[in-house]
Amino acid sequence: MPTFQLLSMNILEIIKMKKKERNNPPPATVHWVETSDSLARHFQFEPDGQLSVTIVNDTRPASQKMVESFLNKFFPSGYPYSVNEGYLRYTQFRALQHFSSATLSVLSTQSLLFAAGLRPTPAQATAVSWILKDGMQHVGKLICSNLGARMVMLAADVLYDFGTGLEIISPLCPHLFLEIAGLGNFAKCMAVVAARATKLPIYSAFAKEGNLSDLFAKGEAISTLLNVLGIGAGIQLASIVCSSTQGKLVAGPLLSLVHIYCVREEMRATPVNTLNPQRTALIVAEFFKSGRISSPADLRYQENLLFLGRLIEEAGREKVGRPLRKVFKPSELNKVKEKFPGEKFILKRGEKWTDMILERNATGEDALRGWLVAVPRLKILLKKTVKVLFERLMRG
């Protein structure tokens, strides 16, 4: 009996504890500020558990900023606290491994050229030229690794075709082999990195019900199959029509046009589920013109993929996101903010366009409100829109 009573009491205590846990409010956001002689950082844990760091005040010398920038680009966020012990040693030896491997590759390439019967001096020059040409690949990858996510697939493929074209014409200028072939490799590798950065967002736009991994695998399988078939077709062309440089100069531009056209149509077929300045301008212009909200299908066929920053007259010719220092003088900033009380945006009308500056915590609704205010004919168009809506309601 005592054992039964003890068990009953334990069960009741557990139930009470669970009730208390349910009644307790969610924990407050954890944040703090760490200061030093030259730097102040604000740390905050996000709801998903990630630690975000914001620099509040920075008076560090330029050399220290360069070191910090290097660590931010080549080491994980939050290093060294975000990695396990031994990561630095591993990275040091991995860097040495790649350095020694690249050095051995240079020596082996030179040895192969010697073995092919070339004389030492030309072989050395050719080896150095070829190695520098391949080295441009890595320079392109380093530059584009930070910018690739901002580049669209169409621009990446145009860049890739540009690099391919340079490689095709390189036999016409053998004395400029290093410059032309190196620039071609540089452009192609930048394009490859940019294209890889856009793959996941494009596949995500098509995914439904959590099937992104399957969609990605199947899409890559199709790409691989067509790449193999394209290699076979290229071998046939190279042995028949394109056996000479003149043949390549004819077939190359034609294939490039087909390539760019296909990519353009692919991008137009991709669903548009987010808004950028151009899409927002298209929605505002269509709303004031007909009182209708454009669908994602309408937007993707109206958007200009080559000139994403083009201004639309019917939507107020508005630019979003320009640096504050380029739009306003410090002396006029407070006066402008008084014109938009309670808003998280400020506007400045210019001769060619209207600039909109958003606060850091502004929402999409704030951006849309600012866009509507920027339209010069807003009052007239609003009256027209209200009249159209009223007529529709009366008919219904």
Automatic annotation (TrEMBL):
Secretion signal, residue range per the UniProt entry: none
UniProt GO BP: auxin polar transport; response to UV-B
Domain of life: Eukaryota
Domain Protein root UVB sensitive/RUS: 62-290
Pfam family, one: UVB_sens_prot
InterPro entries (alphabetical): RUS_fam (IPR006968), UVB_sens_RUS_dom (IPR054549)
GO cellular component, one term: chloroplast envelope
Family per similarity comment: Belongs to the RUS1 family.
The name this protein goes by in its record: Protein root UVB sensitive 2- chloroplastic
